[in-house]
Amino acid sequence: MEQLIQQVASGLANGAIYACVALALVMIFVSTDHINFAQGEMAMFSTYISWQLIQWGLDYWIAFFAAVAISFVAGVLIERIVLRPLHTAPVLSIIVVFIGLLAICNSVAGTVWSYLIKEYPTPFPKEVFGFSGLIGAHQLGVVVVTLLVLSLLFVFFRYTPLGLAMRAAAQNPVSARLAGVRVDWMLALGWGLAAAVGAVAGMMVAHIVYLDPNMMAGILLYAFAGALLGGISSPGGAVLGGFMVGVLENLVAYLGNAIEKGFGVYIIGNGEKLTVALIIVITVLTLKPSGLFGRVVVKRV
Amino acid sequence: MTTATPADTATTPAVPASPMAAAGADRRWVWIVVAAAAALPLLRSVVPDIISDYRLFLMSTMMIAAIAVLGLNLLTGFNGQISLGHGAFYAVGAYTAAILMDKLSLPYWTLLPIVAVVCFVVGFLFGLPALRLEGHYLALATFALALAVPQMLKYRWLEDLTGGVQGIVLLKPEAPFGLPLTEDQWLYYYCLIVTVLLFWAAWNLLRGRSGRAMMAIRDHSMAAGTMGIDTARYKTVTFGISAAYTGIAGALSASAIAFVAPDSFGFFLSISLLIGLVVGGVASLPGSIIGGIFTVLVQNSAQALSNFVKNDIGLPYDLSPYSVYGILLLVLMYVMPTGIAGGVVMAWRRLRR
């Protein structure tokens, strides 16, 4: 039983990271209808930047915020320079460009920082407290940071004029433009925020999975699964979906382990993590494409 | 959901609409190219240095890649269903062939029909849920498939069949009837025969009724439906045919390399097929050949490129094929949205005017 609770707790910590990446995906999706396949690699790149800053002797938190700021600017620039000209391009071109971005981020990180796996520091204290080893200090820290980011974003979107303008631009670009909102810049701002949120996820997860250019592939897939499960058009749903998928992932592994112990039959384990994500993605997409909390899109013909 | 950019549809609607514009316009040229390709190994006694076994092997892999790109093109280019996970079908083909050779010791030439059927069924089944998905969502599902494939191949219950992480070691095909050919020469002819047959079949498929139906669905699926085209059936069958083509390419590559292992069928493979598609030209048969040649060239000249960057330009970095792919994907989307084949055709038209 205690093992089960432990699994759920660490699932929540993983889920926090998926929730962050899923939220980044949703932010780009609601404003542009694009699914950003390069989100994971962008987060990985931001994490390398922060690692480099730490190597140069900066304090962890200074490096953290510097990396978030750099990612924000980079996200805005990518939208303005790379995606802007493709505003009316067909879906295939846009997907190809995302895949190109993914490949560039991955290979540039690999050439600059090498493909060797690196250790990444954690800012949280080592000692275990309170929950008697149910959840590690770093994992608890991850959950706290995620919740902090989420509430900051919520406040930003709910209570600031800029957040209101961004929501307006995403929901109804034509009317928003008529009301004086600079829609193009709102999209770029959305990209910047998504890159920044992704960067936070990358820096939080790097301590757990270690830093290497391919670290985000599996995480991105789970973030997709989470975003779809919660509804890719709903930020809150995506966050919840991220947590659910994180717990689900650990429960599946736990269950597989239990079956193997009890019956001696191997069915599923850690080796099938990505397959589980694939199954979630395809099941949700075919059975309920709008997810649990998403808006059902009615197309006008 | 068209595959051509707006600019392209405005100026040259003929390029995506008629795949045969370049290939069929002058059929004589196709025969000349095929005859030249068939005669190539015979020139060995004249210029042995140029036509080495290694070069022939390289050309065989180019043809294999061309078939795989053609498979993707049938689905994405001509039917408008975007797939980022065609490496999966390539893997299914390669593993089906390898297991049949390894466990049942079937001769290699009996495999292709079996592989085609197996991959058709797999593709058809994947096409069923894909029916409900469009554009970004289908790309997302196939993206997930591409990432998960190596893991699935390592699944413990399949280990007896697939050899797990170790993979399966095979024998290279030998020339039949005591023909005086080396392994690589025979492989070259074998690939050439299969390539010609498959491209001929695709050409016939596309210019006929079914091909027009496929393209109609791509251009406007609802309009196609109102004209009496069974869109669901066409889409799933196209998925199956596309998977069969790519699977045959996988089976050929298993014979050619004489080895299969899970990690060679990762995301990178799917990206290679995608870049073959984009570089060669979306919805273009000759483009598929160009794309196939191109992907093999990039992968094989990666070391040379890397050395060039290091020694001649003086940058202290390795240039991997991955980065070349990434940069090209971006640049091509702006400069030549119809790929090299489309770009050349457009340039040629402009020059003749």
Automatic annotation (TrEMBL), chain A:
Keywords: Amino-acid transport, Cell membrane, Membrane, Transmembrane, Transmembrane helix, Transport. GO terms for molecular function: transmembrane transporter activity. The keyword Cell membrane applies. It is a multi-pass membrane protein. It comes from the Bacteria. Its main location: membrane. The chain crosses the membrane at residues 12-32, 60-78, 90-116, 136-157, 185-209, 215-232. InterPro entries: ABC_transp_permease, BCAA_transport_permease. One of its GO terms (cellular component) is plasma membrane. Belongs to the binding-protein-dependent transport system permease family. LivHM subfamily. This is Branched-chain amino acid ABC transporter permease. It comes from Vineibacter terrae.
